[in-house]
């Protein structure tokens, strides 16, 4: 199983600064789903004439690789949302120094997350703002949030269905047992074929899905985390200062938004009214320096699981590349 992806920039040219784009997966937290997307983004960044060299790194969320933990048990449960935030924050801090040139910290770190990964990114910004002394070398600059599930997840179409299933007799306690019993009789190659031909996944995404479903603990970790998301993510808990922090407040001279967000037009994991209420709050909050959170709602039909299809992976990579170019233009004016 692929556990991490490391895509460094080309050798520094002249007086370039160096930045890290740290990617946080959605649920199921498998970096293998994002191979096409991160390949596309790497190619687009390499084609840019930027004053900053961007390295890209991403890894599985905790608990999704059987080789990295002991089998789950009553005294060794899967990771919940809070545990994932703490684990990713720790890893961001480590990678932001370890992966940089000569072990020097990066000039800037950009967190990029998909789905629950977007929530994890925002909460890391929040925790770091409350106690920057935990990682004083970590210079968090921007968050790139893709199909963010950051508020009232239970009100979404899929959240409502999942809570209904949990309410059925024995399902909350034994769903994984039932699912694994069924999956046990289906060969991995057959699963791969079903996912690719019936669900339309790319070959890469079909391979990752089949491997995850046949793993020892992957399904349990995904379900445990999904329940934690439903029980944890209510109204967004962060104040306006985090979202709309001004240049003077950060001391960084930022003229680009701190956060860039891309929502699906019809996302079964995000209720339309929850999304629209959040956008309206951000519009009203504004910023004394006029730099607001950048929010885009898809005008097409890109699905929440964009990473399972190669063409939508490229579409989102181009969107992210546009954000990075906007950040570059802003910082050249500092």
From TrEMBL:
PANTHER family attached to this UniProt entry: LIPASE, LIPID DROPLET-ASSOCIATED HYDROLASE
Cellular component GO terms, alphabetical: lipid droplet
Gene3D superfamilies per UniProt: alpha/beta hydrolase
Stated family: Belongs to the AB hydrolase superfamily. LDAH family.
Organism: Metarhizium rileyi (strain RCEF 4871)
UniProt subcellular location: Lipid droplet
Gene Ontology terms describing biological process: lipid storage
Protein name per UniProt: Lipid droplet-associated hydrolase
GO MF term list: lipase activity
Keyword entries, A-Z: Hydrolase, Lipid droplet
Keyword Hydrolase (UniProt): yes
Pfam family, one: LIDHydrolase
